Amino acid sequence: MLAGLEPAELPADAIEVGRIADAWGVKGWFKVLPHSASPEALFSSRRWYLLPSERGPKAFSGTVLLRVREAKEHSGGVVASAHDIDDRGAAEALKGARIFVARSSFPTAGHNEYYWVDLLGLEVVNREGLVLGRVRDLLSTGPQTVLVVEYMDEGKPMERMIPFVSVYVDTVDLAGKRITVDWQADY
């Protein structure tokens, strides 16, 4: 087991937020590939839970806790340093590790802002009350985000795309697990 890593239990509310790409520099820093274009969860938490890469050599097994010293944006990406990861070799050993952060440590979303993970699984209904399906995924198309809504048609899973913009989205009720939209089933 690498110094700086301690066995830990993955929190029940853990969300995968990125992956360690490689070492960065010679002082133990490493590059991170965030799963989000806005990686606030990486910056807000100093406790990252790591699971080893699915492929290649593994420097550790099971879930480990990495105590982050600093995480910051650099050249369009994210770099980080952790306690007791003090040289390039230790940082390279983390390559491929999956990074999880407790959902409870995410920063609070602003008014009419939502974390994608909170929208997954929500029921989508139109203004008339017709159920259009459930949010299976979200896509970033550049200028906007699109809800990928899965529904069944004659026993076969289908999907519809609904732009996640105020013109079409009336309300998001996280507590009620429902999104109301101005959209029709035949669009």
What does this protein structure show overall?
The chain is mainly beta and 187 residues long. The chain folds into 2 domains: 5-105, Elongation Factor Tu (Ef-tu), domain 3 (Beta Barrel), CATH 2.40.30.60; 116-181, PRC-barrel domain (SH3 type barrels, Roll), CATH 2.30.30. 8% of the residues lie in helices and 47% in strands. It has helices spanning 40-44, 88-93, 116-119, and strands at 5-7, 14-24, 29-34, 47-51, 64-74, 77-82, 98-102, 123-126, 131-140, 145-153, 156-163, 169-173, 178-181. The strands form 2 sheets. It has a 6-stranded antiparallel β-barrel with strand order 2-3-6-5-4-7. A 6-stranded mixed sheet has the order 11-10-9-8-13-12, with no helix packed on it. The longest helix is centred in the middle third of the chain and has 6 residues, at 88-93.
